[in-house]
Amino acid sequence: MNTAIRQLHARQILDSRGTPTVEVDCILADGSLGRAAVPSGASTGSHEAVELRDNDELHFFGKGVLTAVSNVNNLIAAKIVGMDAKGQREVDSAMIALDGTSNKSRLGANAMLGVSLAVARAAAVSSGLPLFRYIGGMQALRLPVPMMNIINGGVHAGWEGSDFQEYMVVPYGARSVCQAVEWGAEIYHALKSVIKKKGYITAVGDEGGFAPQAGSNRAPLDFIMQAVREAGLEPGNDVGIAIDPASSEFFRHGRYVLRTENRELTSEEMVDYYVTLVSDYPVIVLEDGLSEDDWDGWRMLNANLGDRIELVGDDLFVTSVERIAIGIKNKAANGVLIKPNQAGTLSETVDAVKLAHKKGWGAMVSHRSGETTDSFIADLAVGLDVGHLKTGAPARGERVEKYNQLMRIEESLGKSAIFAGKEGFAIPVGF
């Protein structure tokens, strides 16, 4: 069997923050090599699968991943070497059974995901197929709208700027991914000039976005609106805005603490806050508007804005089929953020997307703040036809590589390529 897994080998490498992470090589019987590197988040939901760290303070301040590496090279390899790499679900199920916990805390989600993605890539190589085609088949033709995080706040900026973690520009009016990336890059450069002229430092945060020490959560929106216009584009027609407040990070004792505005809001007041922002700016996606366990607040948010914009749960759902099902039953949102390392295997990630799509929800594939140059999620977004992908600013190699991969895929598809554009969201733009 040419696609039998012949060898697994994991190693410790560094991510974009200089923190260790897991990289895995999978070699098949026919010599095909699949390599995958695992990202890591800074603001993580408490319900995510466990990222296994060594906790050895003598090395990398306890952040080493040699235990996870050892689990791949010994425990996981002993279980799945000899299995067919094309049997992705069987491979993933074998690892899940071997781990035996509800949150992957024995083997580590970072160990398991590295193996899962490397196996898929090796199988694609052996099949002679590009990864997006191996994942999605012949119907994988639609390119996602790139959602570029061009202003960083919250934990991504060391709490030096706004309370909200991400402000994204969404060039949905472009004709192609190539044009969308061009527009995003032009807006990014225009934004640098806008911020500089206002007297702020143009240093960037973890995801490549600027991190001005703005005095409110609305100021970054105003900066972006100005930058879009200075790039010769029209807000609301050519380009929209997405916001990820990452509100679990500033939820304290039942209140949302907006440090920059010296205010503490209830869930109802926070919903009203977002309604005003959506009315004042061309916001089309709001991610993690409320805290990860504020189910009543989420239902209220969806009742107020769910017919106008896409409301995405990240910490709320953590790419978990079980939690997404609860959200669907409770009408808590209309979109899901998809982060493979929250789930721990490719199969579980695919299942989360399929459930969202089955119920008419949006599904947005996402990077993490601690990234590598692995472009797997770009192919995943095309293969699963999610319509939109967020992977940081058009700056820093680990972010840009995902956008570059989208452009390569579009080029390879030629005239068959379809750009998701305004139809790429749970609530289409202009609906």
Task: Explain this structure.
With 431 residues, this protein is of the alpha/beta class. 38% of the residues lie in helices and 18% in strands. The chain has two domains: 5-128, Enolase-like, domain 1 (2-Layer Sandwich), CATH 3.30.390; 136-423, Alpha-Beta Barrel (TIM Barrel). The chain contains 13 helices and 16 strands. The chain has an eight-stranded mixed beta barrel with strand order 5-6-7-11-12-13-14-15, surrounded by six helices. The chain has a three-stranded antiparallel β-sheet with strand order 1-2-3. A three-stranded antiparallel β-sheet has the order 8-9-10. It starts with a strand and ends in a 12-residue tail after the last strand.
